[in-house]
Every structure is written in structure tokens, then in C-alpha cells.
UniProtKB/TrEMBL annotation, chains A, B:
PROSITE patterns for this protein: HTH_TETR_2
Protein's recorded name: Transcriptional regulator, TetR family
Keyword DNA-binding: yes
Pfam assignment, any one: TetR_C_16
Keywords: DNA-binding
PANTHER family given in the database record: HTH-TYPE TRANSCRIPTIONAL REGULATOR RUTR (PTHR30055), TRANSCRIPTIONAL REGULATORY PROTEIN (PTHR30055:SF235)
GO molecular function terms attached to this record: DNA-binding transcription factor activity; transcription cis-regulatory region binding
Organism (species): Micromonospora mirobrigensis
UniProt entry tagged with the keyword DNA-binding: yes
Gene3D superfamilies, alphabetized: Homeodomain-like (1.10.10.60), Tetracycline Repressor, domain 2 (1.10.357.10)
DNA-binding region: 38-57
HTH tetR-type domain boundaries: 15-75
DNA sequence: GGGTTCATTCTACGGTTGTTGACCGGCGGC
DNA sequence: GCCGCCGGTCAACAACCGTAGAATGAACCC
């Protein structure tokens, strides 16, 4: 018997090439965005020919779709306060190492309609969970604001690299944001009682 | 004497054409971003030939630079609370009618390095004023967070058009954000006393 | 072991884009 | 009234990009 890693079978090699292409695509899409990324550049970074990328993924759009596939980031349900804390935990993880797939989606969402749709779709479950947990007439707006804050902070840290945000520790950031999130997630005290 | 508007002089006509081109450029840059905007499309929208755009502005980059020129948005100084309120006022204005020049800059900042630089430069004075007003060791970070929130909300409302944010009234948004801004602008109570 | 499948490459085409230079015609000064 | 400047157009070039299709050679199945 031969070691499975000694000489990869054809199917293995195909998967391996696909994965190398996808990794290169994720990185370049995340760095340059959809429009400035060329199939040739992705192929070159993956060490293959541009034709192969087309052969495996069909088109640039389909390659992008595969590259930015990201698991829906579900929040554990609970009270509004607990959900706010869960959102902070999610934010802390994303502040340290946001995966390239998410960055690629973020980078392209303003200039590519398809990316914008995927971004909206990816954020939708979290948005719904937030809206549901915040029992208030303006829960929709509060959830939208929380989402906007999260993505604004991530974008300015990882994409724009504003020094004010890029140099700070995740703990420092979420500690400053915690009261904001709690306030936004908590219904006004006039009609609802906390906890 | 002839009415000055009856037949415009040559200099007037040039300025008029330049302004029409700039207006078209601002709108298209704001809608599509830098890369998807073509000089031909701008020229067509302005009712002129593409060559004229080059003739007047030199290159696409220079046209973009002229199109996104936006006056630095200065905040009136004061205590941290007053500055936070001024930032809210600025936000309210930008929520109703953000000028196309600013939207063009926002739209392109993630995919165009030059736009990113201009964005950073445009936000710098406001960022400095915020940092100065917030007397705390982490003033830099707090100012950065405030800026990130403002731009995140504007981007998701005007560029991404997330329904949660696009449908809300500016008053509702800034009322929800006010406690967040006050909290972020106010130094921790352990060492500083408010007002 | 022979025929086939398939991973991979090469070449090329059509379209778009930024940019250029020649050209035209009317306004402005003399 | 004439000449030159200048607003404006037209046609074209060179580069690049996404994409298609033929070609090749090695791996796989029977």
C-alpha cells in the first residue's frame, strides 16, 4: 500500500487545487475587492493557469460566491442583555481574526451588488435574532444600529486600518462598547422592566 | 446690454460644463464606486464627449479627486458632552441629505487606495477634535469608535440601504444613539467628574 | 495494456476602458 | 473683418479582462 500523501489521487489533487484557488481568491478579494481582483491574479497566486479557475468555478461571479461562503453566525438566544453580550463576544472574535472570506465580502459590499446581497443575507439571521430578543416597538431599528456598529468597527479596523481602532486591543474595544450595546438592546424603562 | 444668461460667454460655458461634469461624476461615483464608473458614462450623463472630461480634468483619478472634494466638517469645541451632541447634530444632517461627494468617497473607500487616503484625511480633523475633547487616556480609541459608528450608520443607511436603518427617521436614530455617544465621550467616573 | 477520462495549459477572441491626438467651428480681441 | 484661441467632437490605440476552446499528457478503469 502507498501512503495517501505520497502521490495524491486525481480526485485529491483536484480538491487540493480547488482549495488552493479558493484560498488565493479569498485573500485577494479581501485585499482588493471584487473589481480589482483578476482571475489571472488569483490563478497566479494559486500557481495554476487562469483557464483552470474558469474550468472549476465557471465564472468570476461564481468563484466569488464560493470564496465568500461563510457560515451564518448564530447568536445564542436569551434576554436582551444576554444577546447583547453574545454580540460582544462575537465581535471580540471577529476583532482578532476575521476570516478572509468575511473580509472579502465586507471589502466588496459597497461596490458589487451581488456582494451587497450576500452581505445582507449573511447578516439577516443575526439581525432577526437581535430584533426578536429586543422586545420594543423600535426593535428593528435598534438591531440595525447594533449591526451597523459592529460592521463599522470591523471595517474601520481591518479594512481601513484606522490607527485609532487598529492599534487597540479587542478587550478594550468591547469594554467601551458594552454600555452602548446594553443601552441599545434594552427597551426604554418607561414601559418595560429590566431583567 | 445683453442679459448675461441669454448667451453665456465662453468662460461661463466652460465653468458650466465643468460643473455639469462634476455633478454627473459625483452622482455616478456615489452610485457605482470608483472602479465601475467609466469616464464615458460620466461624459454621457453630462451630455459631453469623453475626451472633454480628459481635457478638463486630466485623468480619471484627478476627476475623482475633484468630485469628492468636501469641506472639512468641523465640530464646535466644548466639553465632551457638548462635542458628543455636536457630533449627533452633524449625524442628523448627514442622515437626511448626505451630499453626493461624501457618498462617492464613502462608496469607494474600501476598494480604492486613493479614496481611502482621502477618507482618512477628511475624517482626521473631526477625529482630532473628538480626541481632544475627550480627556481620557483612551481618548484616541473612544474617538475612533464614535467615528466608526457614525460612518457605519451612514454607510448602511445610504449605501447598503438596510431597511432597518433606511426606513427610520433621523430623530429616532440620533435619540437612540445619544446615550451611546454620551457614554463614549465621557471619561470613566473613577477619576474624572462629569460636567 | 489500451482506451478513456480528466487535470491542466496555451492561445486567442471580443469587449471595455483610460487616454491621446487630430480635427472642426464659433467666440474674442485687434 | 480677420486671425487665433479654445470649447468640443471623433476616431483610434494600447492594454487589460473575462471567457472559450483546442491541445496534451498522465492517471484511472476494465
Amino acid at each position: 500500500m502507498t501512503e495517501p500523501s505520497a502521490r495524491p489521487t486525481r480526485a485529491q489533487q483536484r480538491l487540493q487545487s480547488e482549495e488552493r484557488i479558493l484560498a488565493a481568491a479569498r485573500q485577494i478579494f479581501a485585499e482588493l475587492g471584487y473589481e480589482r481582483t483578476t482571475i489571472r491574479a488569483v490563478a497566479s497566486a494559486a500557481g495554476v493557469d487562469a483557464g483552470l479557475v474558469m474550468h472549476y468555478f465557471g465564472s468570476k461571479d461564481l468563484l466569488f460566491a464560493r470564496a465568500v461562503e461563510v457560515p451564518a453566525d448564530e447568536l445564542p438566544g436569551g434576554t436582551s442583555g444576554e444577546v447583547a453580550e453574545a454580540l460582544l463576544t462575537s465581535l471580540r472574535r471577529r476583532l482578532t481574526d476575521e476570516p478572509a472570506a468575511s473580509l472579502a465580502l465586507l471589502r466588496s459590499m459597497l461596490t458589487n451588488a451581488d456582494a451587497a446581497d450576500r452581505y445582507r443575507a449573511a447578516g439577516k439571521p443575526q439581525l432577526n435574532q437581535l430584533t426578536e430578543a429586543i422586545s420594543a416597538p423600535d426593535a428593528h431599528l435598534r438591531a440595525g444600529l447594533l449591526s451597523a456598529i459592529v460592521h463599522g468597527v470591523i471595517a474601520e479596523r481591518h479594512l481601513l486600518r484606522l490607527t485609532h481602532l487598529a492599534d487597540a486591543s479587542p478587550e478594550q474595544i468591547i469594554d467601551l462598547l458594552r454600555p452602548c450595546f446594553q443601552t441599545l438592546a434594552t427597551a426604554p424603562p418607561t414601559s418595560g422592566k429590566p431583567s
